[in-house]
Each structure stands twice: as structure tokens, then as C-alpha cells.
UniProtKB/TrEMBL annotation:
Matches recorded under InterPro entries: Sbt_1 (IPR010293)
Name the record gives this protein: Sodium-dependent bicarbonate transport family permease
Name of one Pfam family that matches: Sbt_1
Taxonomic superkingdom: Bacteria
Alphabetical keyword list: Membrane, Transmembrane, Transmembrane helix
UniProt cross-references to PANTHER family, sorted A to Z: SLR1512 PROTEIN
Residues annotated as transmembrane: 6-26, 38-55, 67-88, 95-119, 125-149, 170-189, 204-221, 233-257, 263-281, 293-315
Amino acid sequence: MDFGLIADNLLNPPILFFLLGCLAAFSRSDLTIPQQLSKSLALYLLLSIGMHGGYELSKSGITADIALALGAAMLMAIVVPIYSFWILRIRFDLYNAAALAAAYGSISAVTFITGVSFLNQLDVAFGGHMVAAMALMESPAIIIGVLLVRMGAGKDSDEPLDWSELLREAFLNGSVFLLVGSLVIGFITGEPGWKAMEPLTGDLFKGVLAFFLLDMGLVAARHMGDLKKAGLFLVGFAIGMALLNAAIGIGLARLLGFGAGDALLFTLLTASASYIAVPAAMRLSVPEANPSFYIAASLAVTFPFNIIVGIPLYYQVIDFFWR
């Protein structure tokens, strides 16, 4: 293994700011990021990556290969929560297993964005359609998670499910809406639109990502105490699923002939877990599940593992097989 790439990733300013946030939380510093500012930074990142994806998609057009990649993304979004659920049922009840499975079937946009920054640093090209793949993968797991609960509870559950509210939360939540909208705007306006927006959506991107990851470090470190409630099984699951899903993602990307940049982003989508959209939906649809389990596992274990170790590790594997 080339540890130089992992070391280079650790010395990447956004990753260092993430670790700084963790250090601030562990040392009980009074450093805080106002919630509204953190939300604004997240919205900026989604807008930027959506515009960039739309611009790149306008250059490449929608081809059969792109349609195949989007189909693979949808397939993984449906399959991952199903096999995750059966693994989790070894130690968790129906509700917590379904909520955790939904989190791991969905994706982390910040992990994806950090992967984009990593590829830009290495000057490795990737397709704008991967942003569309990210948008497609965020929501299906929410539906799968609720269906798993309904099928498992069977006739014991007499409470009617508000499907309209669930579907609204799954497909019209703010992050998905902004991401898809920015992608469409970037696609429609093409290069003139990208050039006009580039001072905002291009030049500032890495600095804002570093600031956002500082906040993510604070939040992730504060959730690590919740892991004590679930024990080592959940920690092992959070890392094991990242590695298993990454291996499946790399294999599928190789089988379908993805480029190296697209393969890494696809792998990160399959290996990441949601800590924003899914928790919001699960609190609404599966209130019996304990939020500290699915938030702590995805945010305090899988997320830092992927951005610190996973990204350079997955890329090394891809680079080896793609040569």
C-alpha cells in the first residue's frame, strides 16, 4: 500500500480542519459554529457541486454509458439497505436495524464533495453525471427502510403510514431539491453559465469545504460518546460496511467500464452513509428507532473513516486495477 497518498490526504487543508474540529471537541474548547452558518455552508457546497455537475454533463451529453452508470447507482441504493438490514438483525431489533440500513443505503454528500476535492488535487477527471447519481441515491433507501419496518411489523402495526409526507421527505428534502435544481441549471446554461458563476462556485469551493469540515469535526466528535450505547458491533459494522460496499462499488465500476475518477466517486457513494436526510426521515417514519445509533455510526465512524483513510485507500485500489 502506498501510504504516501494517505499522508498527502491527511495534509489536505479540509481534512486538517476536520481533525481540528475533532480536537476542539475532545479538548472541550468553546469553539462553536452557528447552526445557521453551518447550514448555509452546506447549501453553498450543494449548489456548487450541482452547478459543476450540470456544466460537465452539458459538455458530455447524456449517453448510454451515463444511463448505465445512473442505473447502477439506483441498483446499489436499493440493494445495500436490504442486505445491511439482515446483517444488523443479528444484534438489533427491527426498528433500529431498518433505520441503520436506510442510513447505509443512502449517501453522504460531504464525503462525495471531499472526494471531488481529492480528484481535483490529483488532476483526475470525472463526469458531471456522477452528481446526478448522487442525487438519485439519496432517497430510495428511506423508502426501503420504512418498507422493511412495515413488512417486519406485519399485522402488529395498526398505525397508518403517511406516504405523502414520507415521499415528500424522501424526494423533496432541501438538499436533494437544491442539488437537482443546480444540476439542471448548470446543464441548461452550460459553459457561459459556469463561467459567470465560477468566482462563487469554483474559486471559493475548497475554502468553504475546509470551513464546513471544521464544523463536521466538532459534530462528529460530540457523537462518539453515543457509540458506547451500541458497543463494538456497531463500530465494526460502520467500518465493515464501508469496506464491503466500497469493494462492491469498485467491482461494479470496473465491470461497467467507468473511468478512474468516476469509479472513485461511485465507490464513495456506495461506501458512505447518510447523517442528514435519512435521520430526518427516520425520526418521522420510524420513531421507535434510537437516533443515537444511526447518527453516531454514520457520522462518528463511517464519515471520518471514509474521508481520512477511505478516499486514498479506494483510489489506490482503483489505480492498481485501472492501469
